[in-house]
Amino acid sequence: MDVYTFQSFSPPQHLLLATVAAVIGPLLLLFAWSCSKWLSQQRLPNPPPSKKGWIPWLGVGLQFGKAPLYYIKRVHEELGDIFTIYAVGKRMTFLLDYKDSSTYFKTPSASFKEAAIDFTTAAASIEPTSFSEHHTKIHDIFKGQLTMHHLDPLCQELSLSFYHEILLQVREREGQEVEMELMDFVRKTMFGPVVKQLFGQSNLQLSEEEIKSMLTNFIKYDADFKYAQLPAIFNREWGSTKEYLLNIMKKVVGRVPKQADCLKHAAEHIISAVDPANAPGYSLMVLWASQANAIPISFWTLSFILSHPNVYKKIKEELKEWPLFQKDMMIFGINVADETSFNAVKEEDLKAAPPTIKRAILEAIRLRSPGMIARKVTEPIKIKEYTVPAGHYLMMSPYHSHRNQTYFPDPETFNPERWLECDIDKNQFLPGFIAFGGGRYQCPGRWFALMELHLYISMILKLLDMTLIDEVPKPSPLHLTGSQQPEGSCFVKIKLK
Ligand code: HEM
């Protein structure tokens, strides 16, 4: 078309042309972009089978987002043990065969750090440069501080705090039965003691009311954790809970004495290892990691025990042998111990707590473990007959892996006895169990978690009579990044023994 012909168009034709160009232009660009993507995929030697959806960027985001836990199961049944999902601009390749876990955990080009960096920026405002520099150091400090050998003082301190909180919930109506929602009860009795233990009372300086408000914000923060990477406009409410918690953490790390005599709490370790500007963000991540799994797992353990009369009966028998209250309290040579002489529980005392409770905890973790863990592929990785391209997120799903018949016969059944073959005092796990992840960045809090859970459940069942009123709810299909939350409420009757 020359200038003359162009000029001969009347104004409405101009408008028409401009509109057509405005519509077709982006479509052509989109088409070209899709073609180049498609061609680059074709050049790869055998990428895993995939679910892409029709809409670029969004991919299968809508189906996936509705019930991610079930969507993974459906695609697993359709495409097999390795598959890729394209959703909201991310390419996630799932490995659901436990046999691939050693490649997953050991290959350097499946990077934990690269997968975590964007997420921690979004979820806790940690700057990427700080994360690259300090993450490994802070991981190693926690791993070192939470080994089995360091648990005794933590166990003693926690037991006193649990005792106080448990009695606080029921003492007002001593002798009477109280009806409470179980998850609510667990949150109220577990959150405060663990937060105080991890960050230190002197650094926290929070009133009971402030701890309650911290818990309310934490519940919202955890529930919508998965939206962290969406633009702020879609998750304003979630953003305000994050800011609230970051502000608390800012005060907490600000109170850590410059020259602490003994490094004891998470806040002190964090301040000693990272740049001050990002210390609140690391503290928030530790708060989330420590609570988002242990609280729901306590709920599931209790509800599974209460709904399995044989298991509960066995535990009640074993509890008779566990002296939670002191037998000897000598004053001027006279033994003044009675039924109410509660003393801190030492870690060695915990070894005598019901082993069936510990097996029940491991079984609850198996059945309700995190929906996924992530790594990022930095160089193409060959797995089975496929090559997973660089840039993909590489996912394993402890929740789905723990339903593999080969490792866990009758996988949906709650059966603490399947753990009989493991030495639970040494925290030995069954083959196929990956609830705490694996490799260089495996959960550094796992030994603390098992001690904390064993102590908490044993104390609850020793101190209280509990009966289920409702049926045990199903796990919510929405939770992918932490242990499963219950879908709906579960009321119990509680009475102080
Ligand atoms: C039943 C309870 C728990 C479960 C199932 C659990 C599970 C996990 C999993 C799967 C990971 C990722 C590991 C990987 O990708 O290989 C992780 C990381 C982590 N966990 Fe746990 N965890 C639990 C309790 C705790 C507790 C009580 C703490 C702290 C006291 C804790 C602290 C952490 C931290 C700090 C990380 C991040 C490690 C890093 O960034 O290098 N966890 N946990």
In short:
This protein has 20 helices and 13 strands.
Structure in words:
With 497 residues, the chain is an alpha+beta fold. The protein has one domain (117-496): Cytochrome P450 (Cytochrome p450). It is 52% helix and 10% strand. The chain contains 20 helices and 13 strands. The protein has a 6-stranded mixed β-sheet. A hairpin with a 2-residue loop joins strand 9 (381-383) and strand 10 (386-388). Helix 8 (151-170) packs antiparallel against helix 9 (182-199), helix 11 crosses helix 12 and helix 12 packs across helix 14. The longest helix is centred in the N-terminal third of the chain and has 33 residues, at 11-43. It is globular. It starts with a helix and ends with a strand. Bound molecules: protoporphyrin IX containing FE (HEM). Residues 112, 116, 139, 142, 286, 289-290, 293-294, 297, 365, 369-370, 373, 435-438, 441-445, 448-449, 483 line the site of protoporphyrin IX containing FE.
List keywords for this structure.
6-stranded mixed β-sheet; 3-stranded antiparallel β-sheet; binds protoporphyrin IX containing FE; 13 strands; 497 residues; globular; alpha+beta; 20 helices; Cytochrome p450
